[in-house]
Amino acid sequence: MTNSNVRILVVDDEPPIRKLLRVGLASQGYTVSEASNAKVAIELMEQEKPDLVLLDLGLPGMGGHDLLRKWRDEGVDIPVVILSSRTDEAGIVSALELGADDYVTKPFGMNELVARIRVALRHKFQQQGEKPVFQSGDLSVDLVKRIVKIEDREVKLSPKEYDILRILVQHAGKVLTHHFILKQIWDDSTDVQYLRVYVRQLRQKIEKTPDQPRYITTETGVGYRLRVE
């Protein structure tokens, strides 16, 4: 699918932001529709069936969280990328838990936003099922044989370390909240510090410079992301 076939719905109450997104995304070949509030967004969702939504959380009337909840409750499963203020970590986490696919914080660069859009769309349009071998830079993960390598050197991981890496691989490029990872591997009552310890151990094994990770990056106050190169 080419960019020209992809329709993006921008939901933001600030005209300058909508103009920036309209011009910037159009220059990348995307078709853009705009909504300044939830009511218009709901109408356009029904009429135009967009492929992706850029959603501001601070909408007047029905807020972004409520709009996202409504869509997910109704079975609308298209990718949603959140537009949020840099200081609203709690709002970002809440939106991701409601089913948002990713987020960018204002002010944002167009290159960063387009990269997030491409990742979200790739997850939507990819064929069902996992690729047996994931590759990013020198890191390779064989999801069938459970073999992890850096260059040609096999890396031995504990079961929990592998489980964390597997989940990150399955959602490569997307930010995963602490709560999501904890729920997948342990249970909701497990302390997030427990996860941080395992991520630190995992970085020691797969990162050349663990304090400046290349692969497993921290989304401050939110969670982790496996970078795709």
How does this structure look, described?
It is built from 8 helices and 12 strands. The strands form 3 sheets. It has a 5-stranded parallel sheet with strand order 2-1-3-4-5, sandwiched between helices. Strands 6-7-8-9 form a 4-stranded antiparallel sheet, with no helix packed on it. The mean pLDDT is 90. The protein is globular. It is α/β, with parallel strands linked by helices and 229 residues long. The chain starts with 6 loop residues before the first strand and ends with a strand.
Describe the secondary structure blueprint for this structure.
Layout: E1 7-11, H1 15-27, E2 31-35, H2 38-48, E3 52-56, H3 64-73, E4 80-85, H4 89-98, E5 102-106, H5 110-125, E6 133-136, E7 139-142, E8 147-150, E9 153-155, H6 159-170, E10 175-177, H7 178-185, H8 192-206, E11 216-219, E12 223-226
Parallel strand pairs: 1-2, 1-3, 3-4, 4-5
Antiparallel strand pairs: 6-7, 7-8, 8-9, 10-12, 11-12
Helix pairs in contact: 3-4, 6-8
The largest β sheet comes out as: 5 strands, parallel
Strand content: 15-25%
Q: What is the number of strand segments?
A: 12
List the helices and strands in order: EHEHEHEHEHEEEEHEHHEE
What is the helix tally?
Answer: 8
Q: Could you give a quick summary of the protein structure above?
A:
This protein is α/β, with parallel strands linked by helices and 229 residues long. It contains 8 helices and 12 strands.
